[in-house]
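As promised in the previous annual report, we have extended the structural survey to additional targets. Below is the entry for (raccoon dog) hypothetical protein.
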Amino acid sequence: MQGFAADWYIQESISIGGTRTRLRFFSFHSHYSKKQKIGRRRVGKAGGEQVRGQTLNPHSVRELGNIDEVQQISLEDALSSQEVEVAYICSESSSRADNIRQFLNADKHVLVEYLMTLSWAEAQDLWKLAEQKGKVLHEEHVELLMEEFAFLKKVVGKDLLKGSLLLTAGPLEEEWFGFPAFSGISHLTWLVSLFGELSLISATLEERKQDQYMKMTKSPGLKRNRHLSFHFKSVSLENMPNVGVNKNIFLKDQNIFVQKLLGQFSEKELAAEKKCILHCLWLAEEIQKYCYSKK
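The corresponding structure token record, generated without further manual editing, is:
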């Protein structure tokens, strides 16, 4: 694919709760370009790095060399190596499914940034493949480890009368990150995790591509933010209070992944997580269909 390249390397880990396990990790990230400009992104913070750069050559790749005395290797070597047991996938949403499938077919466990795919049906196929291979497929969900979410979980034990959640953000390239319901799927995950499965009643989309304007949750100049209003029988919540700084949420998510590798999650817990993720993908697809059907 023109304008696409990848860096690959191995790194070692990890010790969890006094239990030490030695694994070889293979981390993937990508470059994407538009009009001969490349924004190099270790997409997401889970990798601990996000670098934006420019280059005149859309096919250029930053050589990583050695990291912590571990040498960069090729994709082919990572897929075939017996030392590589786990893959971290941190690419654009549009390309993740193919990467997941490659590593699962090579008998590797996979941690992938949300969302794993832009298709509900494809996500089902990927989980089926992981189960057939006996491998862990973990989709990162750091939004569920935030202090704001922990606060809301304490509040929503009450009877909800009505509520709204307004989300704002700058625009993202739909080619890479999907329709806004997909690129903002973490907010659907919040709602489903707090209130259970949801039904779509209506959805609207106003879009002016020439102005980079999209009225759903995204438009230029808007900072990433949440504006909520929840009214329960006994209390109303109009704004999110200052509940503290999120600490080590990406490390916490990786710890959850390792606990799965060590068999410390029950089948019931894994099934509930999978059900939530698939339901959110289904909702995102339904929102997209509804918006486009109204055009």
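The longest strand covers residues 19-34. Residues 5-140 form a domain with the Rossmann fold fold (CATH 3.40.50.720). These points will be discussed at the next consortium meeting with the crystallography subgroup.
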